[in-house]
């Protein structure tokens, strides 16, 4: 059994994401960087967790939180300095039914990597546990997981419209309420979009709209369609489809050409 399907693993352990700590009004988490070039897709769990934790701990008497819309803008999609990234999350606006949180992610040299926002809705009738740690303890990356595709146990194929990523049933990818973790969904949307755009492109911005929970006991297909293919910019739409063909989430991803690669999209 691989690390990515080991029932002792979690979405956080697959990507080296630490537990959150509270520093005044700010929540902080880290993500350990492995060897080789990092992928924007690998930040999915870090981004969703830091924003989700930030809103969750301001929920008052409500039971839990579900993500509605997650947006990420990457200032530097490559060339990050380790040993880990640091994400700080703050609340921007809040009411009884939910709110908006923002996060700033920097690398080990203090350079800005990305800014992200999350609209979340508070819900009742669910059981969630999101403990706050007393101090940051960077999480190690598991051996045997080389990147996001391996962590998802996914398979990629080209299609006439772009690309398709299939993520098999895997309880390791679940969140606190048993459905697929929002950060895993974000990661998968990014992986599919990048495959559709081509290896010379890097994700510049991504917006995911979450519609319905995604079950982890059945395969999920991420269909990526290239909407615009230019020399410098590609725009890709990705739909997450359940085993019954229902659209559970959708993402619009803008990718820009890697300046070190002369190839076009």
TrEMBL record:
EC nos: 3.1.2.-
One MF term in the entry's GO annotations: hydrolase activity
Domain of life: Bacteria
Top EC class for this record: hydrolase
Residues annotated as domain Acyl-CoA thioesterase-like N-terminal HotDog: 175-255
Keywords attached to this entry: Hydrolase
SUPFAM superfamilies: Thioesterase/thiol ester dehydrase-isomerase (SSF54637)
Stored Pfam families: 4HBT_3
Protein name per the record: PaaI family thioesterase
Organism listed in the record: Rhodococcus gannanensis
């Amino acid at each position: 059994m691989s690390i990515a399907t080991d029932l002792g693993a979690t979405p956080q352990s697959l990507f080296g994401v630490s537990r959150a700590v509270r520093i005044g009004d700010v929540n902080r988490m880290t993500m350990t960087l492995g060897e080789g070039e990092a992928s924007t897709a690998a930040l999915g769990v870090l981004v969703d967790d830091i924003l989700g934790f930030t809103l969750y701990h301001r929920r008052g008497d409500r039971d839990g939180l579900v993500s509605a819309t997650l947006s990420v803008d990457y200032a530097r999609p490559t060339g990050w300095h380790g040993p880990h990234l640091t994400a700080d999350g703050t609340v921007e606006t809040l009411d009884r039914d939910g709110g908006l949180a923002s996060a700033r992610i920097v690398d080990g040299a203090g350079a800005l990597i990305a800014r992200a926002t999350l609209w979340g809705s508070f819900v009742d009738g669910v059981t969630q546990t999101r403990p706050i740690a007393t101090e940051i303890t960077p999480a190690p990356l598991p051996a045997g997981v080389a990147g996001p595709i391996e962590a998802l146990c996914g398979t990629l194929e080209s299609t006439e419209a772009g690309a398709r990523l299939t993520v098999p049933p895997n309880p390791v990818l679940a969140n606190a309420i048993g459905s697929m973790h929002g950060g895993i969904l974000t990661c998968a949307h990014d992986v599919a979009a990048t495959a559709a755009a081509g290896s010379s492109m890097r994700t510049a911005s991504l917006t995911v709209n979450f519609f319905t929970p995604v079950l982890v006991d059945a395969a999920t297909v991420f269909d990526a369609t290239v909407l615009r293919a230019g020399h410098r910019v590609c725009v890709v739409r990705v739909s997450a489809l359940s085993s019954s063909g229902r659209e559970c989430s959708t993402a619009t991803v803008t990718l820009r050409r890697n300046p070190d690669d002369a190839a076009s999209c």
